[in-house]
């Protein structure tokens, strides 16, 4: 597949997504593919952008963003890495909450285009945002994500992850990376998830080589239309992970 330029992708997103605030964060308008969109039931060849996961507001991302907006004092003057930024809702919520610096990271460069568009849609400045499409789980990039937190010893530091735990093998890679950064920088790791199997089932948790404790910080009931769009998940939870 020939991938369009960032400028062409930006124009396509504006033309083909629907502006929606039907979510746990109605104060945020997002350019999305929703049930009301002609693209909802279309075939992959209808979209020139590969796997547009960023065009959906997943339940875990909604819960995580709601938690940030409801607990602004925790994130004021903090430094944040938004891993798998998607539509950018967590980064936007962090800006609204007064974070001092945010790294929006997604290996899909079009997700970063979507994030930038959503910032502009909400009249939010992204001057505090750095954008990166680097894969921080690759060995050659391992130091990049760690170096981001250097020289911020007196500030709160967070890694935010929404809806990243679809697969246990990928989860293992994530846990190893997260532990390394948490051990070095004392970074808090917050996860938004609707109780997908790799994060909650004991059979999975026992097999992971990287061990952690999980503390539930919040649980939100999802609106009916969100449940319909997202395979029947009815709540979104926010956890803090502590590695040992």
UniProtKB/TrEMBL annotation:
Classification via InterPro entries: Ribosomal_L11_MeTrfase_PrmA (IPR050078), SAM-dependent_MTases_sf (IPR029063)
Gene3D superfamilies for the chain: Vaccinia Virus protein VP39
Keyword Amino-acid biosynthesis: no
Top-level taxon: Eukaryota
GO cellular component: mitochondrial matrix
Gene Ontology MF annotations: protein-lysine N-methyltransferase activity
GO-annotated biological processes: methylation
Keywords: Methyltransferase, Transferase
Stated family: Belongs to the methyltransferase superfamily. ETFBKMT family.
Protein name as it appears in the record: ETFB lysine methyltransferase
């Amino acid at each position: 597949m020939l991938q369009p330029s960032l400028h062409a992708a930006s124009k396509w997103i504006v033309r083909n997504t629907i502006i929606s605030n039907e979510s746990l964060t109605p104060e945020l308008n997002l350019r999305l593919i929703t049930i009301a969109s002609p693209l909802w039931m279309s075939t992959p060849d209808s979209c020139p952008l590969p796997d547009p996961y960023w065009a959906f507001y997943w339940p875990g991302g909604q819960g995580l963003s709601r938690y940030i907006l409801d607990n602004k004092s925790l994130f004021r003057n903090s430094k944040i890495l938004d891993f798998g930024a998607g539509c950018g809702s967590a980064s936007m919520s962090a800006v609204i909450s007064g974070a001092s610096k945010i790294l929006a990271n997604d290996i899909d460069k079009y997700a970063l285009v979507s994030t930038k568009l959503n910032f502009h849609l909400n009249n939010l400045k992204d001057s505090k945002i750095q954008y990166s499409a680097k894969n921080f789980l690759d060995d050659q990039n391992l130091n990049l994500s760690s170096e981001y937190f250097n020289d911020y010893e007196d500030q709160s530091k967070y890694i935010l992850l929404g809806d990243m735990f679809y697969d246990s093998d990928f989860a293992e890679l994530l846990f190893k990376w997260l532990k390394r950064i948490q051990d070095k920088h004392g970074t808090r790791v917050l996860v938004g998830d609707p109780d997908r199997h790799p994060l909650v089932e004991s059979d999975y948790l026992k097999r992971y080589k990287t061990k952690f404790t999980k503390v539930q910080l919040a649980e939100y009931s999802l609106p009916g239309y969100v449940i319909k769009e997202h395979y029947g998940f009815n709540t979104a939870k926010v956890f803090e992970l502590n590695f040992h």
